[in-house]
Structure formats: structure tokens, C-alpha cells
Amino acid sequence: MKLVLFCLLAGVVPGWNETRVATFAPITLYTQFQQAPPAGVQQALQEEVEAIMAPIGLRFEWRDLGKTGGHEVFAELAVVTFKGRCDAADLTSRSRFEGALGWTHVSDGLILPFTDINCDRVRQLTQSGLLVFRAEDRAANYGRALGRVLAHELYHIFANTTRHGSIGVAKESYNMQDLLADDFQFQAKESRMLQANRQGAAVESMAGTLD
Description:
By secondary structure, the chain is an alpha/beta fold. Helices cover 37% and strands 22% of the residues.
């Protein structure tokens, strides 16, 4: 069995769009952190994912992987691992623009519902921009940046595609401006891909409940 990783890199080119549709059944997201984040970071992360995905119709139930009993069964889920230090402390004025910010696992050509987010690299990329904000606002803006990286990886999982968009959340690489801009959304094409795949999954789920 061949296992590869599908990565989101630090890079360039901003842009966004918005599409609104009916909501689907909630998707369960199991999260685990290598180092527990401040509450402000975690809250902003989740709120940003919801803000990006809600116009497309996707909703999520967030669960701590470490607190599960191992007996839960859900129709759709993803497991997200946050690696490194997920806080906005000890920032410097130097930002680096390289390396994978997040990656989704692929095996034998199949996209798996397992994603890793590199908190250290997201902080390294954004730290000079975070210093522009007031100290009390940095955690929220950093958490929002993490949420955008996660939204990108969830796009690969729930649109079931390795393809990228040209601009917006689905594009192949991000720069600091993408992660800290006031707004960052999917383009219409990628929104339609997510919607179509969710509709197909909903039909399959309903068919599976028939006698």
C-alpha cells in the first residue's frame, strides 16, 4: 500500500468568493493537539472554519480525540492533528515563506480523512504580521490563520479531490496576507465541487439506511 501526503505550502496569490446553499448534516471533526492551545486560539480556529464552510452548507461538530470512548459511530468524520506549538507567544519580526503548512493523507490514490496542521510553520509565516495587531488580538488572528489552513485541507477531504483552485481557500499555496486578511473564501468552482460531493454523500447515506 502506497502512502503519500498532500500538502498546502506557503506561497502567493490572494482571492476569494462566496456561494450560499442549504446546509448538510454535521460532519464530526476529531482534533488532537501536540501542545494544548490557548482557548482564544482554539475558539478563533473553529469560528474561522465555520465562517468559511457555512456559506457552502457544511457544518461541523468538534470533538477532542483524547476524550472519546472509541465506540462512537458517525457517517462522516475527519481526524485533525495539530503539530508543534499552537500559540502566538514569543513572536519575532521575521517571517519565513516556505514549507508545508498542512497536509492530508492519501493512500493508493484514495484521500483519507486524516489531516495534519503544522502550527509552528503557520506562526513562522505570520508572526511579523501578527505583531501589527494589539497583543490581546494576536491569539485570535493566529487562530483564524490556522482555521484557514484547516479549511483548505477539509476541502480536499470532503470534495474528494487533490486538485487546487487558482485563488481563494483552495489554491495551492498561501502567503501571510492570505492568512491575515479580513476575509478569505472559496471561489465558486470549488464551492460547487464541495456541494456536489456533499449531495452525493447524503444520497449514499440515505440509500444505506433502506431495508
